[in-house]
Structure formats: structure tokens, C-alpha cells
Amino acid sequence: NLSNRLQQVVKTLRGHARLTEENITDAMREVRMALLEADVALPVVKDFVSQVKERAVGREVLQSLSPGQAVIQVVHEELTRLMGEQNVGLNLATNPPAIVLMAGLQGSGKTTTSAKLARLLKADKKKVLLASADVYRPAAIEQLKTLAKSLEVDCFDSNATQKPADIAAQALDFAKRHFYDVLIFDTAGRLGIDEAMMAEIKQLHEILSPIETLFVVDAMQGQDAVNTARAFGETLPLTGVVLTKLDGDARGGAALSVRHVTGKPIKYIGVSEKVDGIELFHPERMASRVLGMGDVLSLIEQAQKNVDLEEAKKLADKVKSGKNFDLDDFKAQMLQMRKMGGMGALMDKMPAQLAGMAGQVNSEAGDKALRRIEGIINSMTPLERRKPDIIKATRKRRIAAGAGVQVQEVNRLLNQFGEVQKMMKMFSKGGMSKIMRTMQG
Ligand code: GDP
Ligand code: MG
């Protein structure tokens, strides 16, 4: 099985410091198998593997990782990147009603997903109208009406004797006249791709001019998902994908294939047949699922944490040894704190001011602030970083100009640094080792 095979790779690669073309070939063969087993389409696998190889060659291997694990790490990163944007929900930024058009094969989950989305929007205080143009399948419109009723969401009163185009025009008019925020328009799908269906959905798209055109695809479709995605992607200007039935044992390879073929973000995943069975798409989780290498991945995560711990320990040792805490250390400390932002226990043990800074650098605004601070420190000469006391007016102006900031910002940074430096001096030996114990525990 896969995990055994990987173990083998890890063994054969032990003892290399850098990834080379040769030492990743075996690992990539296993990755290829893993992707195919996860139902990623063959051409997608080929592209992906060659791309990852290119990125992996020359990479340094973390001390605590074997090269085999390092390859998996690159694969996981790349897979996450290719899966695309994180947490992109529906885009409703338009004059209401914002229209969401559902497209996909029969049985892919369009009707169910329409109801799930209506439920999410309702919870978000939106006035939602559901409408169905599935005039072909007996009881399809009824299915949506029943779901709408259970959710206490309005459903446009269409019926199977109408033409889909007429339903679209009437539902749109109704939604406008009654000031709905969102109209979710459910459509018919066929069992396979056929011209009549494509022509119809294209026409509906023209009538409705939706802001979201979602391609709904069943994750269990596996390899076939590629062809379906291609056909829909060529016919309609899709804006996103919903991948359903991930509660089954599908490994999720369809996510990569569909993303690759359509180039559109996967916005949601379906995780049960119930109306609350919907989640925002998380590329990283999906990458782990596709690779199916839970153990290896958690090992890698652990190894990365250890590296952070080592860095932190170096800093702590520096403080303990009484060596002067300078601006380079300050920078390292801030980066370190950001990485360890999640470690609440550590924060509790920190002096309030340091913890406050760490919390600050952990937010998005903090990210920006941190980059500015880095920019300022980078504009200093090595001597200035070691002996900030020499930074007087002329140097401040030069540094500010170099970093593209105001002199006041340089001042603020120097003041902050002064505060932290004071605290670092006060840090007793006992205090620091306590922190280290907390981190390791
Ligand atoms: P449509 O033909 O595209 O409208 O598909 P439906 O919404 O009618 O769904 C087809 C079948 O798939 C139904 O039995 C649904 O209950 C089921 N289904 C849809 N989404 C999911 C999901 O995310 N998980 C599971 N387990 N079943 C789903
Ligand atoms: Mg349906």
C-alpha cells in the first residue's frame, strides 16, 4: 500500500541535504500513484508532477525531515496552491437581486446545493428566492419547493408545463418586483453532456445574467469529472465550482482536475445530503485528503514546529547568555512570534507587552506592520542594527527614505525596540526556561 511505499522512499533517500533530480524521482513516482488512486485525471497528474519536480529540485531539506518527506511537503504545498483560493464564498456584489445560476449533470447535487446555499444566505439575513427550471424530471420542481418550505425560504411557483426560458424571465421579474437580495436558479441536467442541455443553459444564462454561475460536480465522478467540467467550462462563463458528495469515500482528486480544467475556484463542498451539509472549500485540507498521507503530513508539520522551537531556543540562549539584544534579534523575534501566534499558552507566560506585540503581528494588519518594520530594519547598516544608540537625526532620515516611511515611524520602531530591550534584560533565567518548557510541553 501507499504508506509502505512511501516508507521505502523515505529510507532510500535518507542522508541527502538537498533535493536533486535523481533523489526525487522515486518519491514522485509514489506521488503519481497517490494522485491517480485519488482519481485525479491522468493529464492533470502529468502536468502537476512535472511542475512539482521543477520546484522541488534544489530545495533544502529541513534537518528533521528526510528528503522523501521533503518531497511530500513540496507536493502538499503545490497541491494546496493549485487548488486555489481559500474560502471564497458567493460573490453577491451587484445590484439586487444577485443571481446564482446552478449548472451540472443530473444527480450532481444542484437542487440540494441550491437549498443549502439558500439556507446559508438566509442565516446571513438575505431575502432569498429559489426557482427551478427543471421541467423534464418528474417531481424535480416539487423537490425544490419541498426543500424551500422546510427552510422557510420562498420558492418561485413554476411548473413542468412551462418553458425553462419563460420560467427564468418570470422568476427574474418576480425577484425584482419583490426586492429579493438573491435569486438562486436551479436547472435541469442530463445524464451525460448533450447539445440540447448546453444550448438551454446557455440561453438561461443570457436571460438571467447571473453574477455567479456555479458548476456543481459530484466528487464520486472521479476521472469523468474532467470531461464534464471541460464541456461546461467551454459553454458557460463559470464563476465557481461546488464539489458535492465528499462525505463518501471519494479521495477528492476531482477537485484538482476540475480546478485545473476550469481555472475557477472551488467555492463550496457538499458533505452530506442534508441541508446543512455544505462547507467552504479549504485547499489545504483537500490537498491532504487527495494525498491520503495523513501520517506523513503530520510528521512534516511536527518537524516544522521543531525548527521554530530551535530558532526560539537560540534567541532564548542569547538572552540568557547576556549578549546584547539588538535589532536583528528584534526582527527575528517578531517573525518568530508571528509563527507561534497560535500558542496561547506561551503568550500567557510572556510579559504583557511582548505578548501584545505578538498578537498584533498575528493579524492581517499586523502582517503589514511587520513588513514595514522589517523594511525599516533592512534599511539600517549592520552597525546601526547592533548599536541603535548611534541612530540620530541624519541616520533616521536616511533610513526612513530607504524604507519609504516617515521619520516618525523610525522613531516609533526605535522606541518599541527600546522597551523590548529593557524587558529582555529583566527577563530572569528562570522566566525564560519556564517559557521554553511551556513551548515544548
Ligand atoms: P441534481 O439532479 O443535480 O439536482 O441533484 P440532487 O440535488 O437532486 O442530488 C442528487 C442526489 O445526491 C440526491 O439523492 C441528494 O440527496 C444527493 N446529494 C447531493 N449532494 C450531496 C452531498 O453533498 N452528499 C451526499 N451524501 N449526497 C448528496
Ligand atoms: Mg435537480
From TrEMBL:
Main location: cytoplasm
All residue ranges annotated as the SRP54-type proteins GTP-binding domain in the record: 265-278
EC number(s) from the headed UniProt entry: 3.6.5.4
Binding site for GTP: 104-111, 186-190, 244-247
Gene Ontology CC terms: signal recognition particle
MF GO annotations: 7S RNA binding; GTP binding; GTPase activity
Listed Pfam families: SRP54, SRP54_N, SRP_SPB
Reactions that this protein is recorded to catalyse: GTP + H2O = GDP + phosphate + H(+)
Localisation: Cytoplasm
GO biological process: one example: SRP-dependent cotranslational protein targeting to membrane
Record-linked CDD domains: SRP_G (cd18539)
Keywords recorded for this protein, A-Z: Cytoplasm, GTP-binding, Hydrolase, Nucleotide-binding, Ribonucleoprotein, RNA-binding, Signal recognition particle
Gene3D superfamilies referenced in this protein's UniProt entry, alphabetically: P-loop containing nucleotide triphosphate hydrolases (3.40.50.300), Signal recognition particle SRP54, nucleotide-binding domain (1.20.120.140), Signal recognition particle, SRP54 subunit, M-domain (1.10.260.30)
Residues in the signal sequence: none
Family listed: Belongs to the GTP-binding SRP family. SRP54 subfamily.
Subunit text: Part of the signal recognition particle protein translocation system, which is composed of SRP and FtsY. SRP is a ribonucleoprotein composed of Ffh and a 4.5S RNA molecule.
Domains: entry comment: Composed of three domains: the N-terminal N domain, which is responsible for interactions with the ribosome, the central G domain, which binds GTP, and the C-terminal M domain, which binds the RNA and the signal sequence of the RNC.
Job of this protein: Involved in targeting and insertion of nascent membrane proteins into the cytoplasmic membrane. Binds to the hydrophobic signal sequence of the ribosome-nascent chain (RNC) as it emerges from the ribosomes. The SRP-RNC complex is then targeted to the cytoplasmic membrane where it interacts with the SRP receptor FtsY. Interaction with FtsY leads to the transfer of the RNC complex to the Sec translocase for insertion into the membrane, the hydrolysis of GTP by both Ffh and FtsY, and the dissociation of the SRP-FtsY complex into the individual components.
Name used for this protein in its record: Signal recognition particle protein
Protein's organism: Methylobacillus flagellatus (strain ATCC 51484 / DSM 6875 / VKM B-1610 / KT)
Gene that this polypeptide is encoded by: ffh
